[in-house]
Amino acid sequence: MAKIEEGLYYSESHEYVRVEGDFGFVGITDYAQNALGNVVYVDMPDVDDEVNAGEEFGAVESVKAASDLISPVSGTVVEVNEALEDEPELLNNDAFANWIIKVELTDKAELDDLMDAEAYKEFCEK
Predict the structure, then answer these.
(1) What are phi and psi of 7, to 5 degrees?
(2) Separation of first and last alpha carbons in the chain
(3) Would you give per-residue pLDDT tens digits along the chain (126 residues)?
(4) CB-based burial of residue 65 (10 Å sphere; 0-12 exposed, 13-18 middle, 19+ buried)?
(5) φ, ψ dihedrals at 58, nearest 5°
(6) DSSP state of 37
(7) By the 8 A CB rule, do 64 and 37 touch?
(8) pTM for this predicted structure
């Protein structure tokens, strides 16, 4: 069973967001990295790019597949995880410790549309 962390918000496309104040740290879930296999490349937006909930903001490529990254929230990218440029496999080591983008949230009400840990666990078991 994939690891699921409490206190995060989850999307049906297997991204998570960890909220700290007005910022959200967006990454892929343990379930997603496990399904992808060995991650070899992460395509990330630039700082100051706008992301919109439900829309693509990048991609993760593994030895067996490529998967679009769908933002669970809307906002402005204030930071990208530059460590992933040289070491994309960090996502396989610990998907929750290695977020992909940090976003200044524009609408916290969007979080209501996401799943909590329990709902996401049930979703993954289907």
Answers:
(1) 85, 5
(2) 13
(3) 689 999 999 999 999 999 999 999 999 999 999 999 999 999 999 999 999 999 999 999 999 889 999 999 999 999 999 999 999 999 999 999 999 999 999 999 999 999 999 999 999 998
(4) exposed
(5) 170, -160
(6) -
(7) yes
(8) 0.97
